[in-house]
Structures are given as structure tokens and as C-alpha cells.
Amino acid sequence: MDQTLLSKVLAARIKTIREDSELQVLAQLDQPTTNEPIITQYVAYTDFHNAQEKKQTASIFVFTPYMNLDTHQHPIVEYQTQLMFHFDPWQKSIHVSVLETLGAASKLAFFDYQNHGLATVALQALIGLARKNGFATIDGVVSSFDGHDDLLRISDVLQKVGFKVQTDPANPHVGEYSYGLSA
Q1: What is the per-residue pLDDT across 66-121, written as a single tens digit (0 to 9) for each?
Q2: Is 41 left (phi over 0), alpha (psi -120 to 50) or beta?
Q3: Which end of the chain is more exposed for a tag (fewer CB within 10 A), N or C?
Q4: How would DSSP label each residue in 112-181?
């Protein structure tokens, strides 16, 4: 794939995000490489605004041009990973509702974006967003909905970015995860 073209598509997407007052860029990286499976050209962005006390839900999205261009060199999808969360501005807590990466099981998937590091980017962006806005905790629930191997894989990703994951031996198919932030 033409790395210059991918950089151009990424720059155009970042420009579009910056022009939208409802969105903000959290992280971006444009280091063209052929070192698959880790994707090194991406932008992580959010629709979160700290003054959204009434809304209290937001998402972090991760977009990459990698394997995301049609025959006319336009992006096929706007993002490949979505991390949805609920936040309580009074308790200063965030609860992750969904962390989804377009994968082979998705009807929208044309390429399996799992195991490329995009969920890690989304989680790191969430931690940075939480710190910047004075949140104290992040938590969520992980399950083996798709199988025990998925539970182990997701737990591993969470632990690599610093989350504590606990499972109950009586119910090993569900786990809780948390991340404490210093005030």
C-alpha cells in the first residue's frame, strides 16, 4: 500500500475532525511502516465534552486508513474502533459500556481490525481523557460472550494498559476491570 497516500488520507480525516466542534482529537500517529499487525497510522478522537452533565455518554473512536480505502482512495468507514462510556461528573467516574473493534464477525467488516492495537489506542486515549478532566476511576465488565479465549484476550489487553481485572472463580465467564487515577 502507498504510504504517502495513507498519510494524505489520515491528514484529511484529522482536518475534518478538527473542523467539527463536536469532536476533539485525543491522539494521532503517522509513522508509515510495514511492521504489521500493529497499525502506526491512526487518529483517536472523541465526542466527549466535560460540560455534558445532561448527556453523560460519549465515545472514543479510532480511525486508520490502513485497509480502509475504496477503489477511489476514499475511506470506507469513519472509524474501526469505538469505545462507548458513561460518565458521572459528580462522582468523577467513568464506566465503559462497549469496546468494539470491527472484526470478521461484523457485517460491516471488510478486513479484520482485531489484533492490530486499535483497542489499546482507545483505552490509552480514555485514560488520558479521564486524567485531563479530573476523573478518579474507570471501570467496566468483560465477559466471554464470544468464548473463553476472547475473555482472556480482552483481559490481557486491559492489563497491558494498567487495568486491574478480577474474575470470580464461581463465574469465570465474567470479569470486572478498574483503573484508579491519581487526583
Answers
A1: 888 888 988 888 888 889 999 998 899 999 988 776 554 444 445 566 677 888 99
A2: beta
A3: C
A4: --TTSSHHHHHHHHHHHHHHHTT--EEEEEEE-TT-HHHHHHHHHHHHHTT-EEEEETTEEEEEEEEEE-
CB 120 within 8 A of CB 60: no
Spatial contact of 67 and 111, defined as CB atoms under 8 Å apart: yes
Query: Looking at residue 168, what is its pLDDT?
Result: 79
> In the sheet that 57-63 helps form, which strands lie side by side, from edge to edge?
24-30, 41-46, 57-63, 81-88, 93-101, 137-143, 171-180, 164-168
All three cell numbers of 169: 472463580
Q: What is the pLDDT of residue 37?
A: 64
Of 44-58, 62-76, 95-109, 157-171, the least confident: 95-109
- Grid cell at residue 107: 457485517
Phi, psi (degrees; rounded to nearest 5) at 160? -65, -30
